[in-house]
Amino acid sequence: MSSSEQCIPAAPVNFIRNIVSEDLESGKHKSIVTRFPPEPNGYLHIGHAKSICLNFGVARDFGGRCHLRFDDTNPVKEDVEYTESIKESVRWLGFDWGDNLFYASDYFEQLYQWAEYLIQQGKAYVDDLTAEEIRAYRGTLTEPGKESPYRSRTPEENLNLFRRMRGGEFADGSKVLRAKIDMASPNINLRDPVMYRILHASHPHAGDKWCIYPMYDYAHGQSDAIEGITHSVCTLEFEAHKPLYEWFLDNLPVPARPRQYEFARLNLTYTVMSKRKLLQLVQEGDVEGWDDPRMPTLVGLRRRGYTPESIRTFCERIGVGRSDSWIDMGILEECVREDLNSRAPRVMAVLRPLKLVIDNYPQGSMEELEIAYHPQKPELGSRMVPFSGELWIEADDFQEVPEKGFKRLSPGAEVRLRGGYIVNCTSVDKDEAGNVKAVHCSYDPETRSGMPGAERKVKGVIHWVSAPHAISAPVRLYDRLLSVVSPGGDDWKKDLNPDSIQLLECAKLEPSLATAPPEATFQFERQGYFCVDSRDSAPGRPVFNRTVTLRDTWTKK
Ligand code: ATP
Ligand code: MG
Predict the structure, then answer these.
(1) Which class is 15-264 in CATH?
(2) pTM of the model
(3) Domain 275-304+473-549 sits in which CATH superfamily?
Protein backbone atom coordinates (compact mmCIF):
# COMPACT_ATOMS: atom_id res chain seq x y z
CA MET A 1 0.00 0.00 0.00
CA SER A 2 1.37 3.44 -0.87
CA SER A 3 2.29 5.96 1.76
CA SER A 4 -0.35 8.37 0.47
CA GLU A 5 -2.98 5.76 1.22
CA GLN A 6 -1.80 5.17 4.73
CA CYS A 7 -2.47 8.70 5.85
CA ILE A 8 -6.07 8.61 4.66
CA PRO A 9 -8.31 8.12 7.69
CA ALA A 10 -10.60 5.11 7.73
CA ALA A 11 -14.05 5.63 6.29
CA PRO A 12 -17.16 5.46 8.45
CA VAL A 13 -18.92 2.16 8.98
CA ASN A 14 -21.40 0.95 6.36
CA PHE A 15 -23.18 -2.34 5.69
CA ILE A 16 -20.44 -3.65 3.39
CA ARG A 17 -17.84 -2.94 6.05
CA ASN A 18 -20.00 -4.73 8.60
CA ILE A 19 -20.21 -7.82 6.41
CA VAL A 20 -16.46 -7.82 5.83
CA SER A 21 -15.77 -7.35 9.49
CA GLU A 22 -18.08 -10.25 10.45
CA ASP A 23 -16.55 -12.51 7.81
CA LEU A 24 -13.10 -11.84 9.22
CA GLU A 25 -14.20 -12.31 12.81
CA SER A 26 -16.05 -15.56 12.10
CA GLY A 27 -13.04 -16.89 10.23
CA LYS A 28 -15.02 -17.24 7.00
CA HIS A 29 -12.14 -15.40 5.33
CA LYS A 30 -8.59 -14.99 6.58
CA SER A 31 -8.12 -11.94 4.46
CA ILE A 32 -10.34 -10.17 2.03
CA VAL A 33 -9.96 -9.39 -1.65
CA THR A 34 -12.13 -6.84 -3.44
CA ARG A 35 -11.96 -5.48 -6.96
CA PHE A 36 -12.88 -2.44 -8.96
CA PRO A 37 -14.01 -3.69 -12.38
CA PRO A 38 -14.42 -0.87 -14.92
CA GLU A 39 -15.24 -1.58 -18.52
CA PRO A 40 -12.73 0.42 -20.59
CA ASN A 41 -15.43 2.01 -22.73
CA GLY A 42 -15.25 5.53 -21.34
CA TYR A 43 -13.65 7.70 -18.69
CA LEU A 44 -14.35 7.23 -15.01
CA HIS A 45 -16.91 9.52 -13.40
CA ILE A 46 -17.73 10.54 -9.85
CA GLY A 47 -20.04 7.51 -9.53
CA HIS A 48 -17.06 5.26 -10.15
CA ALA A 49 -15.22 7.18 -7.44
CA LYS A 50 -17.84 5.95 -4.98
CA SER A 51 -17.11 2.36 -6.02
CA ILE A 52 -13.32 2.92 -5.97
CA CYS A 53 -13.36 4.47 -2.50
CA LEU A 54 -15.54 1.63 -1.25
CA ASN A 55 -13.56 -1.25 -2.77
CA PHE A 56 -10.06 0.12 -2.22
CA GLY A 57 -11.05 1.66 1.11
CA VAL A 58 -12.40 -1.62 2.51
CA ALA A 59 -9.29 -3.51 1.37
CA ARG A 60 -7.04 -0.88 2.92
CA ASP A 61 -8.85 -0.73 6.24
CA PHE A 62 -9.17 -4.49 6.67
CA GLY A 63 -5.65 -5.35 5.60
CA GLY A 64 -6.78 -6.98 2.35
CA ARG A 65 -6.13 -6.13 -1.25
CA CYS A 66 -8.12 -4.60 -4.07
CA HIS A 67 -7.67 -5.57 -7.70
CA LEU A 68 -8.08 -3.27 -10.64
CA ARG A 69 -9.71 -5.44 -13.28
CA PHE A 70 -10.68 -4.30 -16.71
CA ASP A 71 -13.96 -5.91 -17.58
CA ASP A 72 -13.09 -5.88 -21.23
CA THR A 73 -15.61 -8.22 -22.83
CA ASN A 74 -16.94 -5.92 -25.54
CA PRO A 75 -14.11 -5.06 -27.96
CA VAL A 76 -16.30 -2.89 -30.16
CA LYS A 77 -16.76 -0.18 -27.52
CA GLU A 78 -13.42 -0.45 -25.76
CA ASP A 79 -10.15 1.35 -26.30
CA VAL A 80 -6.68 1.58 -24.74
CA GLU A 81 -7.19 5.32 -24.42
CA TYR A 82 -9.84 4.50 -21.83
CA THR A 83 -7.70 1.87 -20.11
CA GLU A 84 -4.87 4.33 -19.62
CA SER A 85 -7.07 7.13 -18.36
CA ILE A 86 -8.82 4.79 -15.91
CA LYS A 87 -5.49 3.76 -14.41
CA GLU A 88 -4.41 7.34 -14.11
CA SER A 89 -7.67 8.39 -12.46
CA VAL A 90 -7.55 5.60 -9.87
CA ARG A 91 -3.98 6.59 -8.99
CA TRP A 92 -4.91 10.24 -8.89
CA LEU A 93 -7.72 9.48 -6.43
CA GLY A 94 -5.01 8.10 -4.15
CA PHE A 95 -5.36 4.34 -4.58
CA ASP A 96 -2.83 1.74 -5.55
CA TRP A 97 -3.54 -1.71 -6.93
CA GLY A 98 0.09 -2.75 -6.56
CA ASP A 99 0.68 -5.86 -8.67
CA ASN A 100 -3.01 -6.55 -8.94
CA LEU A 101 -3.84 -5.29 -12.39
CA PHE A 102 -5.99 -7.74 -14.35
CA TYR A 103 -7.95 -8.01 -17.55
CA ALA A 104 -11.01 -10.23 -17.97
CA SER A 105 -9.71 -10.80 -21.50
CA ASP A 106 -6.69 -12.60 -20.02
CA TYR A 107 -9.17 -15.23 -18.81
CA PHE A 108 -10.75 -15.81 -22.21
CA GLU A 109 -9.07 -19.20 -22.67
CA GLN A 110 -10.17 -20.40 -19.23
CA LEU A 111 -13.67 -19.05 -19.79
CA TYR A 112 -13.76 -20.86 -23.12
CA GLN A 113 -12.69 -24.14 -21.49
CA TRP A 114 -15.36 -23.76 -18.83
CA ALA A 115 -17.95 -23.10 -21.54
CA GLU A 116 -16.96 -26.42 -23.16
CA TYR A 117 -17.30 -28.01 -19.73
CA LEU A 118 -20.87 -26.74 -19.40
CA ILE A 119 -21.64 -28.02 -22.90
CA GLN A 120 -20.29 -31.43 -21.97
CA GLN A 121 -22.45 -31.40 -18.85
CA GLY A 122 -25.48 -30.68 -21.01
CA LYS A 123 -25.75 -27.23 -19.41
CA ALA A 124 -25.06 -25.06 -22.43
CA TYR A 125 -26.08 -25.15 -26.08
CA VAL A 126 -25.48 -23.41 -29.35
CA ASP A 127 -28.55 -21.55 -30.55
CA ASP A 128 -29.23 -20.42 -34.11
CA LEU A 129 -32.11 -18.09 -33.28
CA THR A 130 -31.56 -14.47 -34.25
CA ALA A 131 -31.20 -11.81 -31.57
CA GLU A 132 -34.81 -10.68 -32.17
CA GLU A 133 -36.09 -14.23 -31.92
CA ILE A 134 -34.21 -14.79 -28.70
CA ARG A 135 -35.75 -11.65 -27.32
CA ALA A 136 -39.23 -12.72 -28.41
CA TYR A 137 -38.78 -16.22 -26.97
CA ARG A 138 -37.61 -14.83 -23.67
CA GLY A 139 -41.13 -13.98 -22.47
CA THR A 140 -41.97 -11.18 -20.06
CA LEU A 141 -42.15 -10.58 -16.34
CA THR A 142 -45.63 -12.10 -16.33
CA GLU A 143 -45.27 -14.76 -19.04
CA PRO A 144 -42.79 -17.62 -19.15
CA GLY A 145 -40.37 -17.85 -22.05
CA LYS A 146 -40.41 -20.38 -24.85
CA GLU A 147 -37.71 -22.94 -25.48
CA SER A 148 -35.59 -22.57 -28.57
CA PRO A 149 -35.91 -25.40 -31.13
CA TYR A 150 -32.11 -25.76 -30.90
CA ARG A 151 -32.18 -26.33 -27.16
CA SER A 152 -32.20 -30.10 -27.51
CA ARG A 153 -28.96 -30.35 -29.48
CA THR A 154 -26.67 -33.03 -28.10
CA PRO A 155 -23.48 -32.13 -26.23
CA GLU A 156 -21.46 -33.53 -29.17
CA GLU A 157 -23.31 -31.39 -31.66
CA ASN A 158 -22.95 -28.33 -29.42
CA LEU A 159 -19.26 -28.91 -28.86
CA ASN A 160 -18.68 -29.24 -32.57
CA LEU A 161 -20.59 -26.04 -33.32
CA PHE A 162 -19.00 -24.10 -30.47
CA ARG A 163 -15.50 -25.08 -31.64
CA ARG A 164 -16.39 -24.00 -35.14
CA MET A 165 -17.73 -20.71 -33.74
CA ARG A 166 -14.32 -20.17 -32.19
CA GLY A 167 -12.70 -21.23 -35.46
CA GLY A 168 -14.38 -18.38 -37.27
CA GLU A 169 -16.68 -20.41 -39.49
CA PHE A 170 -19.83 -18.43 -38.76
CA ALA A 171 -20.92 -14.88 -39.34
CA ASP A 172 -21.54 -12.37 -36.57
CA GLY A 173 -24.97 -12.86 -35.03
CA SER A 174 -25.62 -16.22 -36.67
CA LYS A 175 -25.15 -18.28 -33.52
CA VAL A 176 -24.74 -17.83 -29.78
CA LEU A 177 -23.87 -20.08 -26.89
CA ARG A 178 -26.52 -20.11 -24.17
CA ALA A 179 -26.62 -21.54 -20.69
CA LYS A 180 -29.36 -24.15 -20.38
CA ILE A 181 -31.16 -23.16 -17.21
CA ASP A 182 -34.91 -22.57 -17.16
CA MET A 183 -37.04 -20.75 -19.74
CA ALA A 184 -39.88 -20.54 -17.22
CA SER A 185 -37.85 -19.03 -14.39
CA PRO A 186 -39.52 -16.02 -12.76
CA ASN A 187 -36.09 -14.40 -13.03
CA ILE A 188 -35.62 -13.47 -16.68
CA ASN A 189 -31.85 -13.55 -16.24
CA LEU A 190 -32.10 -17.31 -15.77
CA ARG A 191 -34.01 -17.91 -19.02
CA ASP A 192 -31.09 -19.45 -20.86
CA PRO A 193 -28.86 -16.37 -20.89
CA VAL A 194 -26.44 -15.86 -23.73
CA MET A 195 -22.87 -16.73 -22.73
CA TYR A 196 -21.01 -16.13 -26.00
CA ARG A 197 -21.59 -14.22 -29.17
CA ILE A 198 -19.74 -14.13 -32.44
CA LEU A 199 -17.94 -10.87 -33.09
CA HIS A 200 -15.28 -10.70 -35.75
CA ALA A 201 -13.53 -7.78 -34.13
CA SER A 202 -10.05 -7.29 -32.83
CA HIS A 203 -9.72 -6.67 -29.14
CA PRO A 204 -7.71 -3.78 -27.66
CA HIS A 205 -5.98 -6.10 -25.17
CA ALA A 206 -6.36 -9.63 -26.57
CA GLY A 207 -5.66 -8.67 -30.17
CA ASP A 208 -6.98 -10.86 -32.99
CA LYS A 209 -7.09 -14.13 -31.11
CA TRP A 210 -10.83 -14.29 -30.72
CA CYS A 211 -13.95 -13.98 -32.81
CA ILE A 212 -16.28 -15.08 -30.04
CA TYR A 213 -16.59 -13.03 -26.89
CA PRO A 214 -18.10 -13.90 -23.50
CA MET A 215 -20.97 -11.85 -22.14
CA TYR A 216 -20.50 -9.80 -18.99
CA ASP A 217 -22.66 -12.08 -16.83
CA TYR A 218 -20.62 -15.12 -17.74
CA ALA A 219 -17.23 -13.45 -17.54
CA HIS A 220 -17.68 -11.50 -14.35
CA GLY A 221 -18.24 -14.06 -11.62
CA GLN A 222 -15.70 -16.46 -13.09
CA SER A 223 -13.11 -13.67 -13.20
CA ASP A 224 -13.91 -13.00 -9.54
CA ALA A 225 -13.38 -16.69 -8.79
CA ILE A 226 -10.09 -16.88 -10.71
CA GLU A 227 -8.74 -13.92 -8.77
CA GLY A 228 -9.98 -15.19 -5.42
CA ILE A 229 -12.22 -12.19 -4.84
CA THR A 230 -14.03 -12.62 -1.53
CA HIS A 231 -16.47 -9.71 -1.72
CA SER A 232 -17.64 -8.75 -5.18
CA VAL A 233 -19.30 -5.41 -4.63
CA CYS A 234 -21.47 -3.97 -7.39
CA THR A 235 -24.41 -1.65 -7.85
CA LEU A 236 -28.05 -2.57 -7.22
CA GLU A 237 -29.02 -3.16 -10.84
CA PHE A 238 -27.04 -6.41 -10.63
CA GLU A 239 -29.17 -7.74 -7.80
CA ALA A 240 -31.42 -9.60 -10.24
CA HIS A 241 -28.31 -11.09 -11.87
CA LYS A 242 -27.08 -12.58 -8.63
CA PRO A 243 -28.85 -15.96 -9.10
CA LEU A 244 -27.11 -16.27 -12.45
CA TYR A 245 -23.78 -15.23 -10.92
CA GLU A 246 -24.27 -18.07 -8.43
CA TRP A 247 -25.54 -20.57 -11.02
CA PHE A 248 -22.28 -20.34 -12.95
CA LEU A 249 -20.21 -20.71 -9.78
CA ASP A 250 -22.34 -23.70 -8.71
CA ASN A 251 -21.99 -25.44 -12.05
CA LEU A 252 -18.32 -24.84 -12.85
CA PRO A 253 -15.16 -26.22 -11.24
CA VAL A 254 -14.08 -22.74 -10.14
CA PRO A 255 -11.18 -22.39 -7.70
CA ALA A 256 -12.95 -20.08 -5.21
CA ARG A 257 -16.36 -18.92 -4.17
CA PRO A 258 -16.80 -15.16 -4.34
CA ARG A 259 -19.98 -13.50 -3.12
CA GLN A 260 -21.76 -10.59 -4.70
CA TYR A 261 -23.06 -7.67 -2.63
CA GLU A 262 -24.99 -4.75 -4.05
CA PHE A 263 -25.07 -1.11 -3.02
CA ALA A 264 -26.90 1.96 -4.35
CA ARG A 265 -25.22 3.74 -7.24
CA LEU A 266 -24.52 7.42 -6.98
CA ASN A 267 -26.85 9.81 -8.78
CA LEU A 268 -25.82 13.42 -8.61
CA THR A 269 -28.19 16.34 -9.24
CA TYR A 270 -27.63 18.75 -12.14
CA THR A 271 -25.51 16.29 -14.07
CA VAL A 272 -25.66 13.02 -15.96
CA MET A 273 -23.47 10.08 -15.17
CA SER A 274 -23.90 7.22 -17.58
CA LYS A 275 -20.95 6.80 -19.90
CA ARG A 276 -23.34 6.59 -22.81
CA LYS A 277 -24.64 10.08 -22.10
CA LEU A 278 -21.21 11.47 -21.37
CA LEU A 279 -19.94 10.05 -24.65
CA GLN A 280 -22.90 11.66 -26.40
CA LEU A 281 -21.93 15.07 -24.98
CA VAL A 282 -18.39 14.56 -26.23
CA GLN A 283 -19.40 13.30 -29.67
CA GLU A 284 -22.04 15.94 -30.23
CA GLY A 285 -19.67 18.74 -29.25
CA ASP A 286 -21.62 19.99 -26.23
CA VAL A 287 -18.40 19.87 -24.24
CA GLU A 288 -14.77 20.08 -25.24
CA GLY A 289 -14.01 16.48 -24.40
CA TRP A 290 -14.10 13.94 -21.57
CA ASP A 291 -11.95 16.30 -19.50
CA ASP A 292 -14.09 19.37 -20.03
CA PRO A 293 -14.19 21.00 -16.58
CA ARG A 294 -17.98 20.78 -16.57
CA MET A 295 -17.99 17.00 -16.92
CA PRO A 296 -18.58 14.78 -13.85
CA THR A 297 -15.66 12.64 -15.02
CA LEU A 298 -12.65 12.38 -12.77
CA VAL A 299 -10.48 13.96 -15.48
CA GLY A 300 -13.04 16.76 -15.80
CA LEU A 301 -13.27 17.34 -12.05
CA ARG A 302 -9.49 17.32 -11.85
CA ARG A 303 -9.21 19.93 -14.58
CA ARG A 304 -11.89 21.93 -12.81
CA GLY A 305 -9.68 22.06 -9.71
CA TYR A 306 -11.22 19.33 -7.57
CA THR A 307 -8.68 17.62 -5.34
CA PRO A 308 -8.58 13.86 -4.71
CA GLU A 309 -9.08 14.62 -1.00
CA SER A 310 -12.30 16.49 -1.68
CA ILE A 311 -13.68 13.61 -3.75
CA ARG A 312 -12.74 11.04 -1.12
CA THR A 313 -14.38 13.17 1.56
CA PHE A 314 -17.49 13.37 -0.60
CA CYS A 315 -17.60 9.59 -1.01
CA GLU A 316 -17.34 9.15 2.74
CA ARG A 317 -19.91 11.78 3.50
CA ILE A 318 -22.61 10.34 1.23
CA GLY A 319 -22.12 6.88 2.71
CA VAL A 320 -22.95 3.51 1.22
CA GLY A 321 -26.49 2.20 1.43
CA ARG A 322 -28.98 0.07 -0.38
CA SER A 323 -31.59 2.55 -1.54
CA ASP A 324 -31.22 4.59 -4.69
CA SER A 325 -31.32 8.32 -4.24
CA TRP A 326 -30.07 11.57 -5.70
CA ILE A 327 -27.25 13.33 -3.94
CA ASP A 328 -27.20 17.11 -4.11
CA MET A 329 -24.38 18.53 -6.23
CA GLY A 330 -24.06 21.13 -3.46
CA ILE A 331 -22.53 18.44 -1.22
CA LEU A 332 -19.75 17.74 -3.70
CA GLU A 333 -19.14 21.47 -4.10
CA GLU A 334 -19.06 21.94 -0.35
CA CYS A 335 -16.40 19.23 -0.06
CA VAL A 336 -14.04 20.95 -2.47
CA ARG A 337 -14.77 24.33 -0.91
CA GLU A 338 -13.82 23.03 2.53
CA ASP A 339 -10.67 21.40 1.26
CA LEU A 340 -9.53 24.43 -0.71
CA ASN A 341 -10.48 26.79 2.09
CA SER A 342 -7.97 25.07 4.29
CA ARG A 343 -5.12 24.98 1.81
CA ALA A 344 -5.51 27.32 -1.17
CA PRO A 345 -3.35 30.45 -1.12
CA ARG A 346 -5.34 33.68 -1.28
CA VAL A 347 -4.47 35.99 -4.15
CA MET A 348 -6.04 38.98 -5.84
CA ALA A 349 -7.58 38.83 -9.28
CA VAL A 350 -9.94 41.31 -10.85
CA LEU A 351 -12.34 39.51 -13.13
CA ARG A 352 -14.24 42.49 -14.64
CA PRO A 353 -11.77 45.34 -14.41
CA LEU A 354 -12.46 49.03 -13.83
CA LYS A 355 -9.59 51.51 -13.61
CA LEU A 356 -9.00 53.28 -10.30
CA VAL A 357 -6.61 56.24 -10.30
CA ILE A 358 -5.15 57.54 -7.03
CA ASP A 359 -4.58 61.19 -7.88
CA ASN A 360 -2.41 61.99 -4.85
CA TYR A 361 -0.14 58.94 -5.17
CA PRO A 362 3.39 60.06 -6.19
CA GLN A 363 3.47 59.96 -9.99
CA GLY A 364 5.36 57.08 -11.50
CA SER A 365 6.19 55.50 -8.18
CA MET A 366 5.26 52.11 -6.78
CA GLU A 367 5.80 50.10 -3.65
CA GLU A 368 5.59 46.46 -2.69
CA LEU A 369 3.19 45.28 -0.04
CA GLU A 370 3.83 42.03 1.73
CA ILE A 371 0.57 40.09 1.93
CA ALA A 372 0.15 36.69 3.59
CA TYR A 373 -1.17 33.85 1.48
CA HIS A 374 -3.55 32.52 4.09
CA PRO A 375 -5.10 34.28 7.08
CA GLN A 376 -4.92 31.18 9.33
CA LYS A 377 -1.86 29.50 7.85
CA PRO A 378 1.30 31.55 8.29
CA GLU A 379 3.25 28.50 7.09
CA LEU A 380 1.94 29.20 3.59
CA GLY A 381 4.09 32.35 3.64
CA SER A 382 3.50 35.60 1.84
CA ARG A 383 4.29 37.35 -1.40
CA MET A 384 5.13 40.90 -2.41
CA VAL A 385 2.29 42.58 -4.26
CA PRO A 386 3.12 45.72 -6.26
CA PHE A 387 1.00 48.77 -5.53
CA SER A 388 0.85 51.94 -7.61
CA GLY A 389 -1.31 54.96 -8.40
CA GLU A 390 -3.19 53.08 -11.10
CA LEU A 391 -5.12 50.02 -10.11
CA TRP A 392 -7.75 47.69 -11.42
CA ILE A 393 -10.74 47.08 -9.23
CA GLU A 394 -13.82 44.96 -9.80
CA ALA A 395 -16.39 46.93 -11.82
CA ASP A 396 -19.20 45.99 -9.48
CA ASP A 397 -17.27 47.23 -6.46
CA PHE A 398 -18.18 50.70 -7.64
CA GLN A 399 -21.66 52.20 -7.82
CA GLU A 400 -22.08 55.79 -8.88
CA VAL A 401 -25.44 55.90 -7.16
CA PRO A 402 -25.04 53.39 -4.38
CA GLU A 403 -27.98 51.17 -3.64
CA LYS A 404 -29.13 50.88 -0.07
CA GLY A 405 -26.62 49.02 2.07
CA PHE A 406 -23.82 49.22 -0.54
CA LYS A 407 -20.59 49.31 1.46
CA ARG A 408 -18.01 49.58 -1.26
CA LEU A 409 -16.87 52.43 -3.46
CA SER A 410 -19.06 55.32 -4.56
CA PRO A 411 -18.46 59.05 -4.88
CA GLY A 412 -17.51 60.45 -1.46
CA ALA A 413 -17.25 57.00 0.13
CA GLU A 414 -14.12 55.28 1.33
CA VAL A 415 -12.97 51.67 1.26
CA ARG A 416 -9.88 49.81 2.26
CA LEU A 417 -7.85 48.30 -0.53
CA ARG A 418 -7.11 44.83 0.76
CA GLY A 419 -3.61 44.73 2.29
CA GLY A 420 -3.10 48.38 1.22
CA TYR A 421 -4.52 51.80 1.92
CA ILE A 422 -7.83 53.43 2.54
CA VAL A 423 -9.00 55.36 -0.51
CA ASN A 424 -11.75 57.89 -0.90
CA CYS A 425 -13.59 58.30 -4.19
CA THR A 426 -13.37 61.85 -5.48
CA SER A 427 -14.72 61.72 -9.05
CA VAL A 428 -15.39 59.53 -12.08
CA ASP A 429 -14.47 59.67 -15.78
CA LYS A 430 -17.19 58.78 -18.24
CA ASP A 431 -17.30 58.11 -21.94
CA GLU A 432 -19.68 59.86 -24.33
CA ALA A 433 -22.37 57.30 -23.64
CA GLY A 434 -22.16 58.05 -19.93
CA ASN A 435 -20.45 54.80 -18.91
CA VAL A 436 -17.99 55.03 -16.06
CA LYS A 437 -14.48 54.56 -17.51
CA ALA A 438 -12.37 55.26 -14.45
CA VAL A 439 -12.75 56.13 -10.81
CA HIS A 440 -10.56 58.77 -9.17
CA CYS A 441 -9.60 58.52 -5.53
CA SER A 442 -7.28 60.04 -3.01
CA TYR A 443 -5.46 57.84 -0.56
CA ASP A 444 -4.34 58.35 2.99
CA PRO A 445 -0.65 57.34 3.28
CA GLU A 446 -1.07 56.78 7.03
CA THR A 447 -3.52 53.95 6.57
CA ARG A 448 -1.37 51.24 5.05
CA SER A 449 -2.35 47.84 6.43
CA GLY A 450 -0.08 46.74 9.22
CA MET A 451 1.14 50.28 10.01
CA PRO A 452 0.82 51.35 13.62
CA GLY A 453 -2.42 53.26 13.96
CA ALA A 454 -3.71 52.06 10.58
CA GLU A 455 -6.53 50.02 12.05
CA ARG A 456 -9.11 52.67 11.29
CA LYS A 457 -12.23 50.78 10.41
CA VAL A 458 -13.97 51.34 7.13
CA LYS A 459 -17.08 49.53 6.04
CA GLY A 460 -15.81 47.91 2.90
CA VAL A 461 -12.66 46.10 1.85
CA ILE A 462 -12.09 45.45 -1.83
CA HIS A 463 -9.44 43.62 -3.81
CA TRP A 464 -7.35 45.23 -6.53
CA VAL A 465 -4.29 44.76 -8.70
CA SER A 466 -1.75 47.34 -9.81
CA ALA A 467 -2.51 48.15 -13.46
CA PRO A 468 1.07 48.52 -14.74
CA HIS A 469 2.08 45.27 -13.06
CA ALA A 470 -1.01 43.13 -13.66
CA ILE A 471 -1.00 40.19 -15.96
CA SER A 472 -3.99 39.61 -18.20
CA ALA A 473 -5.44 36.15 -18.36
CA PRO A 474 -8.54 34.38 -19.59
CA VAL A 475 -10.71 33.14 -16.75
CA ARG A 476 -13.51 30.66 -17.27
CA LEU A 477 -16.44 30.67 -14.92
CA TYR A 478 -17.93 27.23 -14.92
CA ASP A 479 -21.31 26.34 -13.64
CA ARG A 480 -23.48 23.25 -13.54
CA LEU A 481 -23.81 21.28 -16.75
CA LEU A 482 -27.57 20.87 -16.56
CA SER A 483 -30.03 23.32 -15.14
CA VAL A 484 -32.55 20.87 -13.70
CA VAL A 485 -32.23 18.87 -10.51
CA SER A 486 -32.63 15.37 -11.90
CA PRO A 487 -32.08 15.32 -15.65
CA GLY A 488 -33.41 12.29 -17.45
CA GLY A 489 -35.62 11.01 -20.22
CA ASP A 490 -34.74 10.72 -23.89
CA ASP A 491 -34.61 14.47 -24.32
CA TRP A 492 -32.38 15.10 -21.30
CA LYS A 493 -30.15 17.32 -23.45
CA LYS A 494 -32.82 20.02 -23.63
CA ASP A 495 -31.90 20.84 -20.04
CA LEU A 496 -28.24 21.58 -20.75
CA ASN A 497 -27.39 24.77 -18.88
CA PRO A 498 -26.69 27.45 -21.53
CA ASP A 499 -24.62 29.36 -18.96
CA SER A 500 -22.44 26.47 -17.89
CA ILE A 501 -19.38 28.36 -19.15
CA GLN A 502 -18.70 32.05 -19.19
CA LEU A 503 -15.41 33.26 -20.60
CA LEU A 504 -13.79 36.39 -19.20
CA GLU A 505 -11.17 37.15 -21.81
CA CYS A 506 -9.11 39.66 -19.97
CA ALA A 507 -9.12 39.38 -16.23
CA LYS A 508 -6.32 41.24 -14.40
CA LEU A 509 -4.26 39.21 -12.00
CA GLU A 510 -1.54 40.02 -9.52
CA PRO A 511 1.83 39.29 -11.14
CA SER A 512 2.72 36.44 -8.76
CA LEU A 513 0.23 34.34 -10.72
CA ALA A 514 2.21 34.51 -13.96
CA THR A 515 4.34 31.55 -12.94
CA ALA A 516 1.64 29.44 -11.29
CA PRO A 517 2.04 25.89 -12.59
CA PRO A 518 -0.74 23.84 -14.18
CA GLU A 519 -3.30 22.58 -11.63
CA ALA A 520 -2.18 25.09 -8.98
CA THR A 521 -5.21 26.14 -6.99
CA PHE A 522 -5.97 29.54 -5.46
CA GLN A 523 -8.66 31.44 -3.75
CA PHE A 524 -9.24 34.62 -5.73
CA GLU A 525 -10.24 36.81 -2.85
CA ARG A 526 -13.96 37.46 -2.66
CA GLN A 527 -14.53 35.50 -5.90
CA GLY A 528 -14.07 31.79 -5.40
CA TYR A 529 -11.57 29.03 -5.95
CA PHE A 530 -9.71 28.86 -9.23
CA CYS A 531 -7.07 26.60 -10.72
CA VAL A 532 -4.58 26.88 -13.54
CA ASP A 533 -5.97 24.96 -16.50
CA SER A 534 -3.72 22.05 -17.35
CA ARG A 535 -4.52 22.02 -21.05
CA ASP A 536 -4.73 25.60 -22.27
CA SER A 537 -2.11 27.34 -20.13
CA ALA A 538 1.39 28.06 -21.41
CA PRO A 539 4.43 28.97 -19.30
CA GLY A 540 3.88 32.53 -18.11
CA ARG A 541 0.41 32.59 -19.67
CA PRO A 542 -1.98 30.86 -17.31
CA VAL A 543 -5.63 30.27 -18.05
CA PHE A 544 -7.83 29.91 -14.98
CA ASN A 545 -10.86 27.75 -14.34
CA ARG A 546 -13.31 28.50 -11.59
CA THR A 547 -13.63 25.41 -9.45
CA VAL A 548 -16.39 26.67 -7.21
CA THR A 549 -17.78 29.91 -5.86
CA LEU A 550 -17.06 30.92 -2.26
CA ARG A 551 -20.62 30.23 -1.24
CA ASP A 552 -23.40 28.05 -2.57
CA THR A 553 -25.27 30.33 -4.95
CA TRP A 554 -27.68 27.65 -6.19
CA THR A 555 -29.76 27.07 -3.09
CA LYS A 556 -30.90 30.68 -3.36
CA LYS A 557 -32.06 30.33 -6.98
P1 ATP B 1 -22.30 3.68 -16.47
O2 ATP B 1 -23.63 3.07 -16.13
O3 ATP B 1 -22.07 5.02 -15.92
O4 ATP B 1 -21.97 3.62 -17.91
P5 ATP B 1 -21.06 1.26 -15.75
O6 ATP B 1 -21.67 0.62 -14.58
O7 ATP B 1 -21.39 0.73 -17.10
O8 ATP B 1 -21.26 2.81 -15.67
P9 ATP B 1 -18.51 0.11 -15.32
O10 ATP B 1 -17.26 0.46 -15.99
O11 ATP B 1 -19.15 -1.18 -15.62
O12 ATP B 1 -19.51 1.29 -15.63
O13 ATP B 1 -18.39 0.32 -13.75
C14 ATP B 1 -17.33 -0.14 -12.97
C15 ATP B 1 -17.78 -0.22 -11.55
O16 ATP B 1 -18.23 1.05 -11.10
C17 ATP B 1 -18.95 -1.17 -11.40
O18 ATP B 1 -18.73 -1.98 -10.28
C19 ATP B 1 -20.14 -0.29 -11.21
O20 ATP B 1 -21.11 -0.90 -10.43
C21 ATP B 1 -19.52 0.93 -10.53
N22 ATP B 1 -20.31 2.12 -10.84
C23 ATP B 1 -20.63 2.60 -12.05
N24 ATP B 1 -21.42 3.68 -11.95
C25 ATP B 1 -21.60 3.91 -10.63
C26 ATP B 1 -22.31 4.88 -9.86
N27 ATP B 1 -23.02 5.86 -10.45
N28 ATP B 1 -22.25 4.80 -8.52
C29 ATP B 1 -21.54 3.84 -7.92
N30 ATP B 1 -20.84 2.88 -8.57
C31 ATP B 1 -20.86 2.92 -9.91
MG1 MG C 1 -21.35 -1.59 -16.77
Answers:
(1) alpha beta
(2) 0.94
(3) Ribosomal Protein L25; Chain P (2.40.240.10)
